[in-house]
């Protein structure tokens, strides 16, 4: 199974090992992730201005390139996934944005949102199947109590992201159990970690991440898994967990598959 792959900035700089875990695991699962040649930063945050065009251009370039190859566009980062998916919805539904973007980019083939961006977790759930993932596991995560942390970007707004139930998601818990671990649910697993507030309001971020980690500890969680590099950073650096590690989903997968 072959996909166009959009890595995003963090996985090419501060978190290169998390990308390597993903690529090695994908290969083990028979998934080919072919990195796009000229991808650019997605902007990290979806632009809320109704007339904002410039910050959407890089997402459209990547979507159009994948469309022209007849491939889905795969991401590993929930922020990249969020931005690109919402921009694609704009190209489908908003005539003024669609016209302005196409006039500016002058693509060989007019782009109207025909492409599709999916998170690697969605590929595993919807196209490979967690049962197949479980069959490929060589080192099950037996006896490990793992809590999923979703945060904001994968789930909301629910109507546009259409990733999972925004109030009671299960995809990461199903992923954990496919790898042989024990998925532990806790109340704050879909609460915001503070996001980019870490840059100018650390006290607020510490309060928010602290609530998440204490909620997980109270339910017996021993380690937290997330799909967002920024969430991972905030929980590790500001969550102040006593005896709890925070890992990226690609780390867990590589470990269980015996490739990392």
TrEMBL record:
InterPro entries reported in the protein's UniProt record: Cys_rich_dom (IPR004017), HdrB/HdrD_reductase (IPR051278)
Pfam families associated with the record: CCG (PF02754)
Keywords: Oxidoreductase
GO molecular function ontology, one term from the record: oxidoreductase activity
Membrane-spanning segments: none
Boundaries of every Cysteine-rich domain copy: 4-85, 148-235
Keyword tRNA-binding: no
Gene3D superfamilies, per database record: 1.20.1050.140
Record carries keyword RNA-binding: no
Name assigned to this protein: Heterodisulfide reductase subunit B
Upper lineage: Bacteria, Fusobacteriati, Fusobacteriota, Fusobacteriia, Fusobacteriales
């Amino acid at each position: 199974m072959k996909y166009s792959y959009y890595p995003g900035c963090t996985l090419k700089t501060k978190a290169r090992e998390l990308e390597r875990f993903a690529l090695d695991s994908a290969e083990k699962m028979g998934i080919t992730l072919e990195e796009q040649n000229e991808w650019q930063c997605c902007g990290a945050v979806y632009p809320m201005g109704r007339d904002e065009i410039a910050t959407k251009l890089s997402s459209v370039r990547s979507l159009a390139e994948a469309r022209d190859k007849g491939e889905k566009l795969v991401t590993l980062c929930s922020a990249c996934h969020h931005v690109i998916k919402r921009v694609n919805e704009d190209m489908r539904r908003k005539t003024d944005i669609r016209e302005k973007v196409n006039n500016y980019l002058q693509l060989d083939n007019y782009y109207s949102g025909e492409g599709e961006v999916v998170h690697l977790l969605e590929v595993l759930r919807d196209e490979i199947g967690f049962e197949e993932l479980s069959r490929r596991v060589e080192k099950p995560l037996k006896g490990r109590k793992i809590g999923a942390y979703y945060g904001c970007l994968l789930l909301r707004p629910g109507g546009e992201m259409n990733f999972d139930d925004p109030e009671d998601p299960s995809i990461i818990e199903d992923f954990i159990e496919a790898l042989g671990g024990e998925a532990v649910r806790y109340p704050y697993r879909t609460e915001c970690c503070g996001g980019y507030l870490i840059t100018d309001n650390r006290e607020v971020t510490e309060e928010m991440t602290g609530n998440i980690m204490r909620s997980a500890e109270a339910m017996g969680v021993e380690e937290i898994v997330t799909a967002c590099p920024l969430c991972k950073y905030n929980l590790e650096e500001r969550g102040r967990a006593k005896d709890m590690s925070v890992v990226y989903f690609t780390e867990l997968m590589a470990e269980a598959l015996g490739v990392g």
